[in-house]
Structures are given as structure tokens and as C-alpha cells.
């Protein structure tokens, strides 16, 4: 078929044109996302022995993962950390997003872009910067020592330090998601509430919060899921007590070479992430959000 | 004389040609059979040993070109050789027990020491009759030539740690120094090093073993592993952190936060130089071989089984050149590793100390790095330690 007839065919059948547009992206998603995921699922039912994978199908890896106390501890550490970090990001991120959306004026875009500034560098560099701030020979503790005060041990390779690192890394996601929701929010509604006698706090609870729940929910998911699987931050900031499931998983694919167990961990984390999405999804009502173009129905 | 002017077009053309060459370079091992028609030595090696002065000397003396491919770990190189690499490389490097495995699997050929006159420069402790891992199990063939060595000893800030506490692995379990220890984040070295102490405590280190082999901290019995786990859990409570890289350990030791840490002597060498320059105000010591025993490695050169007689000759020329005293002084200065070649006559006294030239007897007695007998079992132990 020559170029002319192809063009004529696509004009006659818009579906063909749509398929041609969608195909490259869809193919990339299938090859780049689905196939590796499928491979991980398959490996999770296999067995590793001395750095070799054997296709002996069984549920042994899942039994080990759920049965061994060590892996349960890693998971609980990761889960508690992810929940706490999400809550902290939410509490700290909301006022910032609100301020930018409400009072940012013509600098709104600039302020949002500033939030992305840390992303101009790699994650390792950002963690190294935090090490330089929090560590025993970091800026804070060295400063305290220089003025004759004892260093803050809680900041030196602890779970708290890892948590602070995670908040620092993920708070921009939370602020951006909430901000994008707030820019579609009609702030005049708050004036109406005020005229009708609602106090600011009540207006926030009954109007601002529910109408921007979609942005909040997306922000929570964007923080919770990567925190749950995070390996780098606890590794560099957390110290020996902060080993997470993500760190253990990374080790299975790295030095220990126990790929099958690592795959089971990956599938487990994926399932927990899906569960989190399924739990939050029913609470979102698109018609009540600014994303549909309708503010209130 | 007419000269070509440098135009934007010529620059673009040159850049494109260079980019094209660079793009196809990673495929070099797979097209190198055809290329091998020209005299070329093809090496699968660790990058730090590709020293430009040595390469230049080799190329000018043999007329052959030097074509290296770099790798990180033994298993990576081994897998490359297994999947047809014997035809693509003339030389391959490995350490520890790997040379025997390569030879057993037919991936390498015997190394003719008679054609390596510079082995006369090697410390006797690193020649095959004493360092038996350079020969096959039966001792019939020499399977590799020695290169650099290193250890996984304990670097100590001697201004903080009492002299009577230095010299044993048990220092890392001394409550007196709680919060001032750090250890590597890699599970193998942690388990193997503490395994030596565990076997010493249990009294099994010198006892005959089921496999008939001498004690190997990478092949611990279940009882030794259980004791190792107990020791590692006790040690964990005393650690400030597990360092991820040498910069981190360096910083922590320099700042006085860490007083003792097992490491590959890189931090020790750096601190030692800083002390000499007056940049730090404390002394450091490196315990290469604690009284219970230590871990270490000896890098080697091997000749691929796919190298024909001409290529094997060329490979021997490279190894021989490498073992020359003049070159090895350059190698230890460039890499910072311990040398199996005696270059004391070419080094300054402080360099002799820094590069452990007087410690070759200790080095040859270290337990060589190996693969854990069961990575799965070791992974479980390590997870239990990390979760405790």
C-alpha cells in the first residue's frame, strides 16, 4: 500500500489512525512494563540455588516470605514508615500547596517549579546532601559540638533520620498533587460559606478538603507506594536498625543472588500497593473534583 | 605544505565517525574474531590494572595493540568466558579460588612459568609452590600468575582504642567502644570475618572438616553459622552504621565518629597519608591478619584456552612485563593495592609501609575470598541479623 492509499484508508477509517497513534506507546508499555512484571511473577514461583535460577514451580518463596520473622519485620518497618511519612507529607504539604494556589498570584508557576528544584539532581546526591546535614560529622551535629553541645544522636543513622530523608524526598509529590487539584478549585465557594456564617475551619472541612480529595488521594498514593519499596534512603541514612523490605529486596537481586525470593518480595510489594490503591479509589468521586470541569453537582 | 582547515563540516564529520566507533565499541568482543587477524592482545580485566604507561611500553616493545574489556566481579567475567569468551579473549583475570575453577572448566590453559622470567621478582610466598591456588588441585599445572593482593583487615584509630584491644576480631564486639564501630554493608565479608571468630570460639577452626579441606570461612558448618549469627547480632548493637562506600567510612573516621572498622585498607592508606601531612591529629593502624585469621584476595592473570600459541606467547609477554619491578612500583602506586612483586628497592620507606610490602607473609596466609557455600543459607542468616 503506498503513502497516498494509506492516508486515504486512515481518512476513511479513523479507528486505524487512532490505532497507529496508540500502538507505539502501547507496545512500549507492554514490552517495557508488563513483560518484566510477568517475568518477576514467574521467577517468584521458581527456585534459586547458588546464583542459578531453576524452574521448579512451588510456593516456597511466598511461604518463606510470610513465614520467616525477619521478612515480616522488614515489611512492618516499611509499612509503618510509609504510613508515617505519608501523614507527615500530608500535614506539611497541604498548607504549602494551599498557599501557592491561593496567594501565589503570578508567581504560582515559579513556586511550583521551585518545588521541583531538588529533582534537578539525582536521588543519591540528595541523600548525600542529607548525610552532610544529619550525620555525626554533618553540619548540625558538628555545629552543636563546636559550641560545646552534645550531638543529637537521634539524627545519626537512625530510623528518624531515614524518615526525615523520605519526607524530604517525597513531599514535592504531595504538594504538587494537591496544588494541581487546588488550581481547579473555585475559591469563591469559601466566600459563599463565609457569608453564610461558616468559620474558616468548617469551610475547610466541608468544602476545601472534600472538593480537593482527589489531589490529596493522588498525593498520598504517590508518597506511600515509593516509600513502601524505598531502599536507598534507609540504606544511607537509616543505620543498622532500619533495614526495610525494599533494602532486603535490592539485596536479593544484588549480592545474595536469591532472585526467586526477591521476585516474591517484588510481587508482594506490588500487591500491597494495588491494595492501597483499591482502598482509596472508592473514596474518590470525580464529579466532585475540579478535574472533570464541574465544581459541584 | 597544504594543510586541511578545521571547518564546522569536518568537525561534524569527525564527531559522527567517533560517535559511530564509540557506539559499536561495546560489541568489540563479538566482532573481535575477525579483528584478531591483526596482532592484538585481548584482555578481560579489572580496570585499575590498565595503566597507560604499561600499555604504551607493551605496545612499543611487541608492536601489538592492547584491547581491554573491563568487568567488575569474578562471576561476570566467568559467565562471559563460559558463553564463548575463550575465543574472544587471550587473557582473563580472577582472584581467590576462581583460577582453579576456570582451569577445571577448560576455560584457561596452563601458564608456562619458564616463559615468565620476571617471576623471580615475586615474593616467594606468592609463587605456586607456596601459594597453591595458583596451581590446579593436583599441583600438575600452574593455572595463573600472581598480580596484586589485598586484605579485609581492621583499621583502628589508635588514639581512641587501647593497644591491648587491638589485634583480634573480637575488638568489633568490645562494649567499651559502643557506637564507634562501622562495618561494610556486604553480607559475605561480615559473615566470613565473624565466621573466623565463631570457629575460633567453638574450637573448630583447626579441627578436620567433613570435606577434608582446611578451614574456609566461606564454607561454615551449621553450628559455626549459628555462632556467627549470634556474634553478628551482638555486634550490630555496637555499630553506628554500616558504611556503603569508602568516602563514607573515610569521612566518619576522619571526623572521629568511627574508631574501628573492617575494610580493604583504602581508608587506612588515605588516613595514613593525611596523618603524615598533618591533616589529622590521630594515629591509625591496620590489622591485616587478626590473631584468629583474616580475609584477603590475590588477583591473578590467566591465559584463555582459546588463545593459540601465538596469542599465548603475546599474553605471556604482557604478564612478564607486568611482573617487572619497574612496572609493579607503578602499579602499587597507581592502584594502592599490595604487590606480589618485591619492589622495596624502588619505593620510599613510607611507601613500603603504606603498600604493605613487608606483610607478604601475612597476606599469603589470609583466607581467600570465595563464594558462600550456600548463598541462600547466608542470606537467611543476614536477614535474621538485620531484623534483630
UniProtKB/TrEMBL annotation, chain B:
Origin: domain of life: Bacteria
Subcellular localization is given as: Periplasm
Which key words are in the record? Periplasm, Signal, Transport
Signal peptide location in the record? 1-18
InterPro entries in UniProt: SBP, Sperm_putr-bd, TAT_signal
Q: What is its main location?
A: periplasm
Under which name does UniProt file this protein? Extracellular solute-binding protein
Amino acid at each position: 500500500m503506498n503513502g497516498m492509499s494509506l492516508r486515504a484508508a486512515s481518512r476513511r477509517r479513523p479507528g486505524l489512525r487512532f490505532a497507529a497513534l496508540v500502538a507505539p506507546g502501547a507496545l512500549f508499555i507492554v514490552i517495557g512494563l508488563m513483560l518484566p512484571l510477568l517475568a518477576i511473577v514467574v521467577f517468584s514461583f521458581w527456585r534459586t540455588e547458588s546464583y542459578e535460577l531453576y524452574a521448579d514451580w512451588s510456593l516456597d518463596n511466598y511461604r518463606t516470605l510470610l513465614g520467616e520473622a525477619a521478612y515480616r519485620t522488614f515489611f512492618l518497618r516499611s509499612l509503618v514508615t510509609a504510613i508515617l511519612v505519608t501523614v507527615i507529607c500530608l500535614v506539611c504539604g497541604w498548607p504549602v500547596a494551599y498557599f501557592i494556589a491561593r496567594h501565589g498570584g503570578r508567581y504560582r508557576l515559579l513556586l511550583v517549579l521551585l518545588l521541583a528544584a531538588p529533582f534537578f539532581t539525582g536521588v543519591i546526591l540528595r541523600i548525600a546532601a542529607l548525610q552532610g546535614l544529619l550525620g555525626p560529622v554533618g553540619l548540625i551535629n558538628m555545629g552543636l559540638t563546636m559550641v560545646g553541645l552534645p550531638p543529637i544522636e537521634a539524627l545519626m543513622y537512625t530510623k528518624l533520620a531515614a524518615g526525615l530523608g523520605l519526607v524530604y524526598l517525597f513531599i514535592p509529590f504531595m504538594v504538587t498533587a494537591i496544588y494541581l487539584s487546588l488550581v481547579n478549585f473555585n475559591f469563591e465557594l469559601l466566600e459563599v460559606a463565609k457569608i453564610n456564617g461558616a468559620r474558616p475551619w468548617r469551610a475547610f472541612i466541608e468544602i476545601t478538603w472534600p472538593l480537593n480529595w482527589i489531589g490529596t488521594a493522588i498525593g498520598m498514593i504517590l508518597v506511600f507506594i515509593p516509600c513502601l519499596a524505598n531502599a536507598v534512603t534507609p540504606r544511607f541514612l537509616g543505620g543498622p536498625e532500619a533495614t526495610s523490605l525494599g533494602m532486603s529486596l535490592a539485596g536479593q537481586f544484588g549480592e545474595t543472588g536469591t532472585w526467586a525470593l526477591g521476585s516474591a518480595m517484588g510481587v508482594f510489594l506490588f500487591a500491597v500497593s494495588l491494595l492501597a490503591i483499591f482502598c482509596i479509589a472508592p473514596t474518590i468521586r470525580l464529579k466532585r473534583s475540579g478535574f472533570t470541569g464541574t465544581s459541584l453537582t | 605544505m597544504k594543510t586541511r582547515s578545521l571547518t564546522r563540516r569536518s568537525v561534524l564529520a569527525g564527531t559522527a565517525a567517533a560517535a559511530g566507533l564509540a557506539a559499536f565499541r561495546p560489541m568489540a568482543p563479538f566482532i573481535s574474531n575477525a579483528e584478531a587477524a591483526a596482532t592484538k592482545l585481548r584482555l578481560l580485566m579489572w580496570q585499575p590494572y590498565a595503566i597507560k604507561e604499561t600499555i604504551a611500553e607493551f605496545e612499543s616493545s611487541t608492536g601489538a595493540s592492547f584491547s581491554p574489556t573491563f568487568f567488575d566481579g569474578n562471576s561476570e567475567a566467568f559467565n562471559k568466558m563460559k558463553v564463548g569468551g575463550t575465543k574472544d579473549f587471550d587473557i582473563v583475570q580472577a582472584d581467590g579460588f576462581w583460577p582453579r575453577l576456570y582451569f577445571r572448566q577448560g576455560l584457561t590453559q596452563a601458564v608456562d612459568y619458564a616463559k615468565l622470567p620476571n617471576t623471580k621478582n615475586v615474593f616467594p610466598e606468592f609463587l605456586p609452590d607456596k601459594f597453591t591456588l595458583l596451581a590446579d588441585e593436583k599441583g600438575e599445572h600452574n593455572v595463573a600468575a600472581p598480580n596484586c593482593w589485598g586484605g579485609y583487615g581492621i583499621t583502628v584509630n589508635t588514639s581512641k582504642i587501647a593497644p591491648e584491644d587491638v589485634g583480634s576480631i573480637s575488638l568489633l564486639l568490645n562494649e567499651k567502644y559502643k557506637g564507634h564501630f562501622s562495618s561494610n554493608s556486604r553480607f559475605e565479608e561480615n559473615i566470613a570475618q565473624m565466621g573466623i571468630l565463631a570457629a575460633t570460639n567453638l574450637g573448630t577452626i583447626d579441627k578436620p572438616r567433613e570435606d577434608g579441606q582446611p578451614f574456609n570461612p566461606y564454607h561454615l558448618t551449621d553450628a559455626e553459622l549459628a555462632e556467627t549469627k549470634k556474634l553478628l547480632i551482638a555486634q550490630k548493637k555496637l555499630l553506628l552504621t554500616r558504611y556503603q562506600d569508602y568516602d563514607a567510612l573515610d569521612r566518619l573516621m576522619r571526623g572521629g565518629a568511627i574508631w574501628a572498622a573492617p575494610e580493604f585498607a583504602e581508608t587506612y592508606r588515605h588516613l595514613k597519608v593525611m596523618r603524615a601531612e598533618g591533616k589529622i591529629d590521630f594515629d591509625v593502624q591496620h590489622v591485616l591478619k587478626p590473631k584468629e585469621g583474616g580475609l584477603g584476595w590475590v588477583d591473578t592473570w590467566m591465559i584463555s584456552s582459546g588463545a593459540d600459541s601465538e596469542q599465548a606467547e603475546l599474553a605471556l609477554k604482557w604478564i612478564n612485563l607486568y611482573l617487572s619491578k619497574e612496572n609493579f612500583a607503578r602499579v602499587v602506586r597507581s592502584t594502592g593495592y599490595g604487590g606480589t612483586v618485591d619492589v622495596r628497592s624502588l619505593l620510599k620507606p613510607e611507601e613500603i609501609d603504606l603498600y604493605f610490602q613487608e606483610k607478604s607473609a601475612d597476606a599469603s596466609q589470609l583466607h581467600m575470598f570465595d563464594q558462600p557455600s550456600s548463598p541462600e543459607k547466608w542470606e537467611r542468616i543476614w536477614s535474621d541479623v538485620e531484623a534483630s
